[in-house]
């Protein structure tokens, strides 16, 4: 199973720009944080108490 198979389905797809749109709460399933890997580097995406998104390395 690949990592892409574990992603939630896009909330919507913008057919004019080919951009998938994801709800952050679907990516952050435990409500706290999600790890995102790009080229071997791990980043952390989290939702603050104020409802803002923070992406850190």
From TrEMBL:
<dbReference type="Pfam" id="PF10636">
    <property type="entry name" value="hemP"/>
</dbReference>
<feature type="region of interest" description="Disordered">
    <location>
        <begin position="1"/>
        <end position="20"/>
    </location>
</feature>
<protein>
    <submittedName>
        <fullName>Hemin uptake protein hemP</fullName>
    </submittedName>
</protein>
<dbReference type="InterPro" id="IPR019600">
    <property type="entry name" value="Hemin_uptake_protein_HemP"/>
</dbReference>
